[in-house]
Amino acid sequence: MNYQTQQAEKRRRQQDAAAHRAHLAAQRETERAKKSYERAQATAARASAADKKAAEREVARLQLESRLAEVESLNTDLARDLADIDGLLAWTLDIDDYVDLESLKISKVKHPPFEPGGLALPSPAAIEPKHTPEPVYQEPTAPSGLSAVLGGKKRHQQAVEAARVAFENAHSEWERVRHALHKIYVTELARREKMEAKRVAELSAAEEKYEQECKKRELEASSHNAELTKLINDLAFDVESAIQDYVSIVLSNSLYPEVFPVEHDHAFNLGSRELTLAVSVPDPSTVPSVKGYRYVKARDEITSTDLPIREKKDRYANAVWQVAVRSLHEVFEADRAGKIHSIALTVGVNTIDPGTGRPATVPLVVVAADRETFNGFDLARVVPQATLQHLGAALSKAPFDLVPADTSRGIRVRGQ
Description:
alpha+beta, five-stranded mixed sheet
């Protein structure tokens, strides 16, 4: 079970805030200087002979400014990393490592809104055709008077026949167009009904899928809550596996800086009430070894200065001692109910044995501590190495060189 509390995240952000702001400011300055340099280069290329020297001087100035900003950014990041390593114990002291399991229950499942998209829009309606008015037969006016006597009747009869033919043709054409438009409308109406039926079916399927997903989330939340309830009950009745699981939650909540990641492995024995805890720390070669960066103008390059070997060794050893004390603190503080009476802790480095070529762990700290003794310490004021020595720990004489701690005399829980 992975548990990252909002409190721990908030504290992490607060601790990194100042360094992060400085880092962003340095990045912005680097980018600004770089762009200014590129603009100056372009200007120099376009400059006349009279302005060329001035433009070249400006290019050189901005190049220097850009490189110095880059150096500042590198040194800001380095300072943050070194400060993180030096403050591994301080990281956890103002955080309550206790995990309230009840607070991990999901009181209300949050479902995303149902978004059908285009399926929510009905298919466009089929547009009924608009017909021209139906042709009406109008018979020519019959002649009268002298016109009728002088052949008007015959001409009228011819006009009537012509009018009837014209009407019949016009009406046939009107019928033909009307029938064609109606056929198109019926086809479009059928197509629209088919599209609408498909849309409704797809919308129904999408709604059903959404409901199934909601039910799945509800079931997962219910299962999650049931597991937590069981864990809480098992903890109350001292079930060994429950105590083991709770410690897993606590340790997964232990946030370390990216520059110094650690891994935990543990086992709890109910009979002895002892937790066996193994903590893996990074290999010394992965820890920053640079003291600072500077720009060498003559070679136009950024170089680094290595930390003195003594400083590298002291920082790494101090980090290992801090991890050991921090690990004891986090478990004992999180275990408010006092289920764990003692911790047998090993802090080591996973490496390759040069003699066998096979994976091996080099123990750098081996210590046992009981709850009552350890909880009597004021960790805000201790020196981690001295604390471990007070507990009778076996400590490596040279952690940076991966010299294993001497455990030949055995380790016992030492009282105050």
